[in-house]
Give the backbone structure.
Amino acid sequence: MRIAVYPGSFDPVTMGHLDIINRSALLVDKLVVGVLNNNSKTPLFSVGERVNMLKEVTKKIPNVEITSFSGLLVDFVDSLDAKIVIRGLRAITDFEYELQMSQTNRMLNGSIDTIFLNTNLKYSYLSSSMVKEVAQYGGDIGEFVPEQVIAKVYEKYGISKESIS
Ligand code: ADP
């Protein structure tokens, strides 16, 4: 069975993430989306909230599982008996960091490979931080995140979805 792990912060999940999930789920038998529980970052959403939002927006994809993890990615991947890590590449600015990370992971565990999927051009500008930046000032994030996530983001900033024109 070919198992892949798509790790990230997903704070919150965006249309860009969802596109990568949909496309990579077609390439493997099982895709595990790993939500990083990272103590050094202060997220907008708790890890439980991020897991639940991902579960909601991927519930129609049969071979996708959502779970959180902390610690080293290679240890998490190993614990699932997976050999593949999926990452999305938006622009050249992502490349240097992603390459360094995948090479480090290979030094730590030579049996794990990273596969990069290019972004859907429609979402190449999109990041979770941009979504938060726009939402906190009451901008329209309707095109950026899945329908089920929109109100949850505004709620964090004390804004009601209905007040957005
Ligand atoms: P991290 O904090 O690990 O970068 P993110 O949640 O920001 O986590 O991103 C997880 C993965 O999704 C990364 O590989 C990132 O490059 C990719 N990604 C983020 N936004 C997009 C997008 N708009 N299109 C394609 N891939 C994306």
User: Anything to note?
Assistant: Residues 8-10, 14, 16-17, 20, 87-88, 90, 94, 119, 123, 126-128 surround adenosine-5'-diphosphate (CB under 6 Å).
